[in-house]
């Protein structure tokens, strides 16, 4: 029969290959933003998330726009 491959813990160390590192960053960033959104919806929480890429690009998530509230 077919063997199911278990997903083990990822060893936490810097990914040396630049392309692999960029791909992993993009996937992890997407997952992190999805979780932030889910937390804000499920728990009615205000969530803010700021991420800087290795290249210095800014990515942000804010669950509600509070800039215009007084």
Automatic annotation (TrEMBL):
Xref: PROSITE patterns: MADS_BOX_2
**InterPro entries reported in the protein's UniProt record:** MADS-box/MEF2_TF (IPR050142), MEF2-like_N (IPR033896), TF_MADSbox (IPR002100), TF_MADSbox_sf (IPR036879)
One cellular-component annotation, GO: nucleus
List, alphabetically, the SMART domains matched: MADS (SM00432)
Give the Gene Ontology MF terms in alphabetical order. protein dimerization activity; RNA polymerase II transcription regulatory region sequence-specific DNA binding
> One Pfam family, short name please?
SRF-TF
Task: Name all MADS-box domain ranges.
Answer: 5-65
GO process annotations (BP): positive regulation of transcription by RNA polymerase II
* Keyword presence, Disulfide bond: no
Q: Where found, per UniProt?
A: Nucleus
Highest taxon in the source lineage: Eukaryota
What is the official name of this protein in its record?
Answer: MADS-box domain-containing protein
- Source species, please? Aegilops tauschii subsp. strangulata (Goatgrass)
């Amino acid at each position: 029969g077919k063997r199911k491959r278990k997903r083990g813990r990822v060893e936490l160390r810097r990914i040396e290959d630049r392309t692999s590192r960029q791909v992993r960053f993009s996937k992890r960033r997407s997952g992190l933003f999805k979780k932030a959104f889910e937390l804000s919806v499920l728990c009615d929480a205000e969530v803010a998330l700021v991420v800087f890429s290795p290249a210095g690009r800014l990515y942000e998530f804010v669950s509600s726009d509070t800039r215009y509230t007084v």
